[in-house]
């Protein structure tokens, strides 16, 4: 029995590197519905929330408090809500996309949190920031946060979308 524990530990320790080297399989599917600027339906996955960004809500909401703090009027937010939704419809509805995940796979509503890669390789999450149609979701950390903050700052500097 005293030899079994070290043997099991050794087997476990040797198996860890093999597990760590296994790539996470890419999720793919066709976007069948666009709910709004940051939520889509992907046929093989279900509801997908674009990780790292936040777009204005359809109606006035406390969830837009960051935008309110930035001095963006409710009327401007509703306009950007519509533009972000239309942008997503044009970019991804009916398109096959690839999803990549970060550390937290789902939000508190059960939606898959993902980076959405377009067929041409561009990242939808970042495109929305570049167009000024979204802001960085600052509440949680994620791998591309610094890159996303830079994209938002560039849109603000160039007075695009929310920052016009």
Topology summary:
Layout: H1 4-20, E1 27-34, E2 39-42, E3 46-50, E4 53-54, H2 65-69, H3 74-92, E5 96-100, E6 112-117, H4 124-130, E7 135-136, H5 145-157
Parallel strand pairs: 3-6
Antiparallel strand pairs: 1-2, 1-5, 2-3, 4-7, 5-6
Helix pairs in contact: 4-5
Report on this model:
With 164 residues, this protein is an alpha+beta fold. The protein contains 5 helices and 7 strands, in the order αββββααββαβα. The protein has one domain (27-163): OB fold (Dihydrolipoamide Acetyltransferase, E2P), CATH 2.40.50. It has helices at 4-20, 65-69, 74-92, 124-130, 145-157, and strands spanning 27-34, 39-42, 46-50, 53-54, 96-100, 112-117, 135-136. A 5-stranded mixed barrel has the order 1-2-3-6-5. A two-stranded antiparallel ribbon has the order 4-7. It is globular. It starts with a helix and ends in a 7-residue tail after the last helix. Mean pLDDT is 86; it is low at 3-23.
């Amino acid at each position: 029995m005293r030899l079994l524990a070290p043997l099991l530990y050794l087997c476990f320790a040797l198996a860890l590197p093999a597990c760590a080297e296994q790539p996470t399989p890419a999720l793919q599917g066709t976007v069948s519905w666009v709910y709004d600027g940051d939520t889509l339906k992907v046929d093989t996955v279900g509801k997908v929330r674009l990780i790292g960004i936040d777009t204005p809500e359809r109606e006035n909401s406390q969830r837009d408090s960051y935008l309110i703090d930035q001095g963006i009027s409710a009327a401007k937010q509703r306009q950007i809500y519509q533009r972000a939704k239309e942008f997503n419809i044009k970019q991804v509805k009916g398109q096959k996309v690839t999803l990549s995940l970060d550390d937290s796979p789902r939000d508190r509503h059960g939606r898959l949190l993902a980076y959405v890669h377009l067929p041409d390789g561009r990242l939808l999450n970042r495109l929305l920031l570049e167009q000024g149609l979204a802001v960085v979701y600052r509440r949680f950390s994620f791998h591309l946060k610094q890159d996303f903050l830079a994209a938002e700052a560039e849109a603000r500097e160039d007075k695009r979308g929310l920052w016009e």
